[in-house]
Write a structure and sequence with these properties.
Blueprint (H helix, E strand, L loop, with lengths): L7 H33 L14 H32 L4 H13 L3 H33 L7 H32 L4 H28 L2 E3 L3 H13 L6 E5 L10 E4 L6 E5 H6 L2 H16 L2 H23 L3 H5 L7 H4 L1 H8 L3 H11 L4 H16 L3 H22 L2 H14 L8 H7 L5 H7 L11
Parallel strand pairs: 2-4
Antiparallel strand pairs: 1-2, 3-4
The protein binds zinc ion.
């Protein structure tokens, strides 16, 4: 007997399992390093911060960080098991077969498959979200939600997801089935348009479903902020205060919208904690992101990555081993092109009957498999993305230091790090891999303010 070459489906199974295992080991190694590093520095506030941060706040940050890291590890392990259950253990295949025998093939079945997958996945994650909010955030005094608000958020999110998600899923599936070999290009255009639409409607239609936005009332702050924006050459449609305190004590500020529809949103929690000068500095930092076109760059990067993703999916969806290697049985025609050829020689009505009996389309399966499996591989580019993001943060800080007082930015950052209980002593390798924002020590050092001055309140 001749030795047959490694079947491609088996090669894919091995590649997937290896990447998953390597990813898990990396995540565990990094989290363990971070936990140990934080624990080692828990006893004393780092010298650079000793005048600005109390031992109590430092230890709270350490405990909060470690608790979240441990919980994150549990979640990671669990979601890997779920991923295996969907793929190699046959969960997605079973769901697909059950829906096929119940509904028969067609667009309805494909949308049902996507919906069922999202619902099952969402329900499995619920206990983690509950625990995170009502146990961890609660214990550290950050949670301001009650169960009623949590449930209402959940229901609104699900309805919104269905209202926005089902049409775009149907459109992509339609392109896959109807536009031939270059379907992925059309689907990518639709996806891009959908994302731009979301960006556009988010501030005016989506965000108000979850929070109240009121025009900034404080006249002196308004005058300050308007002056700063003019100085920086910005126009915004409005300055708003958002009731972030309804859900969480964590503070933030952000910019949304594009073109002339830009608006500035301050969390009420932020305004309560920062002095007017500090608010200026935080806003100047956000303006810095705009000045350096960081938001545009991020959108362009995401679009380029999604184009590559769609092109790859366009190719993978045609390969029988893509399904078989990930635990899914595709419909027969794809597995045996000869069968498709045989069908095409039959009278069209007969062929159509055969095709629909066999369940011709694997499009929804291909989409779901791709969404499930690609994060296992893209995890390894996390450090690249993080480094790019940290570079942008430094640039925005530098801009803020020109447009506002560096000392104000430094003291605002310290307050935010303290209020969010971010650790001041992270592990450098963990930072390099994951941190989208540089640690406080590096940001303050770049600002030339090694510690916040005493009494900066
Ligand atoms: Zn920033």
């Amino acid at each position: 007997m001749e030795a047959s070459p490694l079947p491609p489906s088996f090669a894919l199974t091995v590649l997937f399992a290896t990447a998953l295992l390597l990813g898990l080991l990396t995540k565990f190694w990094l989290a363990t390093r971070q936990i140990r590093h934080i624990a080692r520095h828990r006893a004393t506030v780092p010298a650079a911060f000793s005048s600005a941060v109390s031992l109590e706040a430092h230890q709270k940050a350490a405990d909060y960080s470690v608790t979240k890291l441990r919980f994150g590890l549990l979640e990671t392990a669990f979601s890997s098991v779920v991923l295996l259950a969907w793929t190699l253990l046959g969960g997605l295949d079973a769901l697909n077969q059950a829906l096929l025998s119940w509904m028969g093939p067609g667009m309805g079945q494909q949308l049902a498959l996507i919906t069922a997958f999202v619902v099952v996945g969402g329900v499995i994650e619920l206990p983690f979200s509950l625990y995170q909010t009502f146990v961890i955030e609660q214990r550290f005094g950050f949670n301001k939600m009650n169960l009623k608000l949590w449930i209402s958020d959940l229901v609104k999110g699900a309805l919104l997801g269905a209202a926005l998600g089902l049409p775009i899923a149907a459109l992509v599936l339609w392109f896959m089935g109807a536009t031939g070999a270059l379907w992925w290009l059309w689907a990518w255009c639709a996806w891009m348009g959908f994302n731009l639409l979301l960006l556009w409607i988010y501030p005016t239609f989506i965000a108000p479903l979850f929070n109240k936005f009121q025009p900034l009332q404080d006249e002196s702050l308004k005058a300050r902020v308007t002056a700063l924006m003019q100085r920086c050459g910005f126009q915004a449609q409005g300055l708003y205060v958002m009731d972030g305190s309804r859900r969480s004590a964590h503070a933030n500020a952000y910019f949304t919208g594009f073109g002339t529809a830009k608006r500035v949103v301050f969390f009420d929690t932020l305004l309560n904690k920062l002095s007017p000068g500090e608010v200026d500095a935080v806003l100047a930092h956000e303006l810095g992101h705009f000045k350096h076109k960081h938001i545009l760059k991020r959108i362009v990067t995401l679009f380029a990555i999604s184009l590559a993703g769609f092109a790859l999916l366009g190719w993978l969806a045609q390969q029988p081993w893509f399904y078989a290697g990930l635990g899914v049985t595709p419909s027969l025609e794809l597995l045996a092109p000869a069968l498709g050829a045989a069908l095409s020689s039959l009278p069209p009505e007969v062929a159509r009957g055969f095709s629909s009996a066999l369940g011709t389309s694997n499009d929804a399966l291909a989409l779901l498999l791709f969404l499930l499996v690609s994060p296992v591989f893209t995890f390894f580019i996390t450090p690249l993305m993080s480094r790019g993001s940290r570079k942008h943060e430094f640039e925005a800080d530098a801009y803020a230091a020109q447009q506002a007082q560096p000392a104000d930015l430094a003291s605002a950052l310290l307050k935010l790090y303290e209020d969010n209980a971010s650790t001041l002593t992270p592990d450098p390798i963990y930072v390099a891999f994951y941190y989208s924002h540089p640690p406080a020590s590096q940001r303050l050092a770049r600002l030339g303010v090694n510690a916040a001055p005493q009494g900066a309140a």
